[in-house]
Amino acid sequence: MKKTILALMVTLFCLSASAQVRVMSNVSTPADNETWAVSNFTDNMGVGYQLTDKVMVGIQKNGEDYDYIARYNFTNNIYFSAQMPQEEATENITMGVGFSVRVWNSLYLEPNYTSKDDEGSFNVGLSYKL
Fold this sequence. Notes:
The structure is a single chain. The protein has an eight-stranded antiparallel β-barrel with strand order 1-2-3-4-5-6-8-9. It is 14% helix and 53% strand. By secondary structure, it is mainly beta. It has a single domain, classed as Avidin-like (Lipocalin, Beta Barrel). The chain contains two helices and nine strands; from the N terminus they run H-E-H-E-E-E-E-E-E-E-E. The longest helix has 14 residues.
């Protein structure tokens, strides 16, 4: 785990000078008897690298594992996303569509709808463009 965090930090440091890196997280709602905590914002945190104006690839934490993510921007605000785990990726791919709203400077609010195995969910995410 320490090696993964170190590799992530080095990658962020090296790529941040190009201003093509985005840090993102999906906000998860707490269970019935729990209160809001920092973990609701950090459980699904990820890093994406903007390859072109329309294509972004990266990794995102999913519980104890890390998933590959990809995003295609239709316009400046509307995007198509895909998330797949490292194991059995083709069977467990999650597809989605979202809308990115600029809140302040480089901070974005991103409501999105994702679908996996005919079950969909509405999510709210935050992202910061470095």
